[in-house]
Every structure is written in C-alpha cells, then in structure tokens.
Amino acid sequence: MSLPRPVWKGHLKISLVAVPVRLHEAVHRGRRVELHLVHRGCGQRVHYQAVCPRHGPVPREELVRAYEYERDRYLELDEEELAAIRLETSRVIEVEGFVPAGSVDPLYLDTPYFLAPDGPVAAQPFAVLREAMARAGVQGWGRVVLAGHERGVLLGPRGPGMLLTTLRQAWQVQAEEALWAELEEARVPAAELRLAREVVDALRRELPVEGLRDRYEEALLELIRAKLEGRRAELPAEAEEARVVDFMEALRRSAEQAR
To answer: In 10 A of CB 130, how many CB atoms?
Structure first.
C-alpha cells in the first residue's frame, strides 16, 4: 500500500525543542461508493443554479457570503474582509501541556492524523520525544493552524510514530446533563445483575476491526455490478425481527447459551 501524501509539514515544538514533522491523514474521508443525480432518460448529470426568489437566476460574480443575524436578515461579508482575518497556516504544532493517556473525553476527539518525523535528521529526536511520552503514560495537548482555522490537538505515541487528533471545541459537544437528569434511578436486582455479568464476561473478546463492514454499501456495490453485467442482484435476506420476551428470561437464556 502506498504511503499517503503529507497534508502538512512543520515542526513539533515542546518547550525549547523543535523537531521537523509531517502529518498524514489516518482515515479516508470519502465514501467507497458515490452516487450522483442525473436526468432520467438522457443520463446527463444535473447542475444546480443559484436562484434569488425575488430576481431569479444569479450569476456567480454576484454571489457574496453573509451571516444571518436575525431571521431572513443577513450581514454581507466581502472576500477582502474575510481574507484579512484568515489565519496563516501554522508551521508549528505547539505542545502546551501533558495529560494522562486516555484521560480526554472521547466526545472531544475529532479527526486523527499520523504524525511522523520529516527526514532522517528528525528521526532520533522524534523517537526520544515519543518514547518519553510512552514511558510517562501521557499525551500532549496543544494547538496548530490548519487551513486557516486554529485547532486544538492531542498527540501521543502510536507504534514507531505518533497519532495526532484534532479536538472539538466545547460548544460543539452537546450538553448531556439534562438528558441524564430525566432518567430515574433504576433498581438493579441482584439476580438479574449476576446473569447479566455472566453474559458480559462470556462475551469478552477482541474487536475484529478488519471484519467491520457496511452491509448496505456491500449491497449497493452488488446492485451496481449486477446492473452493469446485466444480471439479477443477489440482495441480502431481510433480518429477522427481534421478539420481545421477558427480560429475566432473556438473560437466563443468554447466560445458558454463553456457558
């Protein structure tokens, strides 16, 4: 498999130490199957036109970005104003502190990147920093500017390299307290808890990440191949509906099956 091209190059800075590094995307952003809208019959892909409800079609040069500050009222912002406040892409990942590995709430974790030393000279100092974090059991947090936006980041050891993950801001995470406040304190019967623990303990196993799949996407690929080949698609059978049974009885059967 070919190495993904770096999306960013710069320096990892911890205190007075700066090491040349590069960032690579760790996950694919797109979908395996992309569908488009076409005109039925002629098969031509359709295009959308900007239309003003008052004046009709609007040419591209007359479009401007705007902020809706009240319902149906917009403040126009021209490109020069937006360019003036745009942050220059930073060439430094500034580590400002360290936290115990795994202590950051997963809700704040956004996009992962592989972080690697950039060039042979950077290999040893990069390895020293990575090993220091690994032995201390910590992850570094800091910030970087990517594509004009300042992002908080979390980074830590991963194999011979590091994994850097951009962080969501607090306003992006939904408040959960109100949801949990609605839940009544439920009684947990000892017998049911014992059976539930039996089931949980019996099902301890590794997560087969290589086997994770999207059955809808697989069926879509099969449908596309079948239509291209002029044959009938082999569609998956419908899943059997789960029958509602007594909770205690279901636990008992599950525990017996797991033993």
So the answer is: 22
- The alpha carbon of 240 is separated from its chain's Cα centroid by a whole number of angstroms, namely 31
What element of type H or E holds 8?
strand 6-14
Q: Which domains does the chain have, with CATH numbers?
A: 6-30+87-172 (2.40.290.10), 188-235+244-258 (no CATH)
Instruction: Write the DSSP symbol of residue 45.
Output: B
Determine the pLDDT at residue 241: 64
Under-70 pLDDT residues of the chain: 1-2, 30-31, 89, 238-245
Length of the chain equals 259
Write out the two tokens for 132.
């220091």
Q: Return the amino acid letter for 97.
A: G
Indicate the burial class of 19 (C-beta count within 10 angstroms; 0-12, 13-18, 19 or more): buried
Q: Kindly state the DSSP code that residue 176 receives in the 8-state scheme.
A: -
Q: What is the pLDDT of residue 151?
A: 93
Predicted structure pTM score:
0.80
Cα–Cα distance between 228 and 220 in angstroms, integer? 12
Taking only the tens place, the pLDDT of each residue in 82-120 is 888 887 767 899 999 999 999 999 999 999 999 999 999
**How high is the pLDDT of residue 124?**
96
**254 and 245 in contact (C-beta within 8 Å)?**
no
What is the Cα–Cα distance from 170 to 163, expressed in whole angstroms?
Answer: 22
Work out the number of other CB atoms within 10 angstroms of the CB of residue 151. 20
Taken in order 10, 12, 18, 19, is the CA torsion positive or negative? negative
Nearest-angstrom CA–CA distance, 145 and 151: 6
